[in-house]
Amino acid sequence: MAFPALTFVAVFSLYPAMDSFLLSLYSDFPGPERSFVGFGHYAELLQDAVAHQAFIVTLGFVLFSTALELLMGTGIALVVHERFRGRGWVRAAVLIPWAIPTVVASQMWRFLLNDQYGAINAILFGDRVEAYVPWLADPWMAFGAIVLADVWKTSSFAGLLVLAGLQVIPEETYDAARVDGATAWQRFRYITLPLLKPALLTALLFRTIDAFRVFDLVFVMTQGGPGDATQVIQFYGYKTLFTEGRVGYGTTISVTVFVAMAILSLFYVRTVGSKLLQREPA
Amino acid sequence: MAGLELQHIEKTFGRSRVLHDVSFEVGDGEFIVLLGPSGCGKSTLLRIIAGLEPQTRGSVFFGGQCVDDLSPPDRDVAMVFQHYALYPHLTVRENLAFGLKMRRDPKPMIEARIAETAALLEIHDLLDRKPRELSGGQQQRVAMGRAIVRKPKLFLFDEPLSNLDARLRASMRVELKKLHQRLGTTMVYVTHDQAEAMTLGHTIVVMNHGRIQQIGRPEQIYHEPANPFVAGFIGNPPMNLFEGSFSLDQRQLEFRVGDLTLRFPFQAHELIGADNGMATLGVRPEDVTFEPQGSGHVAITGTIDLIENLGHDSIMHMMVKGQSLMARTSSSLRQHAGESITIHVKNFHLFINERRIPLQSP
Hints:
- The structure holds two protein chains of two kinds.
- Chain A has helices at about 1-25, 40-45, 50-80, 85-100, 100-110, 120-125, 140-165, 170-180, 185-210, 215-220, 235-245, 245-275.
- By secondary structure, chain A is mostly helical.
- Chain A has a single domain, classed as MetI-like fold (Orthogonal Bundle), CATH 1.10.3720.
- In chain A, helix 5 crosses helix 7 (about 140-165) and helix 9 (about 185-210) packs antiparallel against helix 12.
- Chain B is of the alpha+beta class.
- The interface of A and B includes residues 181 and 281 of A.
């Protein structure tokens, strides 16, 4: 019974991964005249200032977007966990951004932030066209914009995971805490938050890994600009491979990201995951 | 410590009313049991007493003082929950300390209280464990410890033993009773288990459909049930209840159900002058004997349907003219299913219009 699954994994995961790795060991231009360069591209990557910059931008993106998404997600989860009239609608509404394809959402944010006809400038400054801000032309604001777009889009997903965590905390536990004299804040601080830890860690795991792979937002909204301000590592790899045609080096970047992700996932699964599997809410 | 008084408590959830005009009083240091089937409103009533749920109408008094506007901690009650509701991420020690920390008791006092409670409940070995490392019975102890450690004015128990197996339940019942004798604090205990109610309560409040059916001492509830519901709910096996019609004839009462007619020499003074009418007649399985003893017994002959052997005694199911009847018998009874048997009933319960009518021997 394992054979079909193994075949599937071998053909669609193992083979491409191995082939990419092999590609990264050869000179940039494929064809009969390509030459074996060993780990030459990897050595180059270590020296590549643009790659370093892209790595730092990616880290920054992961840090800010994940932190904000967990914060917003927890807020969303706490709200839709409450009983109130129309909760079903609110729950559905909250999930809409997540249901929109990233490319569409990115395009939407690009329109909203457009310096000439964007809705955000129009709302902020109305007819005072001279005050319009070219949001995506400023390095920091452009970076902020991709973080904002990602937070807008994925907070509800984090919220969904946190909500699942909230729902398994029995109501009786809160009753006990109320009888014990805990205020609403103390109940949140000493009961909800610690019991939510597994859910928060799960959300963190999903979100960091996902954020590391960010590509489409940048591709649509900024093309890595202005300058290299929003050039994340995946976008840099894409550009190197497809725009500059450096197959070997571009693949090297991808493989490096892949290995980094694999290590991060393993680390998470070993630490967070094992705790989750033990169902230990500690 | 304080007595408890409920005055005309009513509770509605949306359009459904779950408590109707509930009033009763509990003396200081008394153990009162709220007994009823699930959905009768007893747990809601307990939550109202705790302050976890606001009542729609009526008032709650502790020691003569109205506590309607007080939050649960200000009421100074402690509650033991059905599923224990221990804080799963905290050790037993931290679970016990939680309430004390919340009210900012000094650290040495917290330590002392924990030590005292742990000794009382014999849980010192468990103090550094997490709840999931404990058995059901141990968790139950810790849940009780968490209530005791705060030295509240009032203990509230919401079916605390219902998740334990039968043997553990019986031993915890005894411990709970000892605990009450030792602490002397007022306790309100919710259960659907009549054995718990009978063994633990000084007073039992029997509830059904959000209304009080009867308040009384355990033996009173058993021997003089106020209505057919209480009669059928208390007792195991339950009381045999027959719905039929009655008529009075000088010195005896005649009861008819289907083809069965029972005449017995009891007199009900309240019924003198009453017309014939509908009534419910009750016979406790324990009030059946197999030898005539003295006067005032009514002999009934029927066939044995089935005998359930319970070891010390047996439950005999019999048919009497189309009516089924259960009797508790000694196991030494040498009869078998299908045989004819004559039983003697020494005591009857009569209910008319859902109300108990006292019967006197003439």
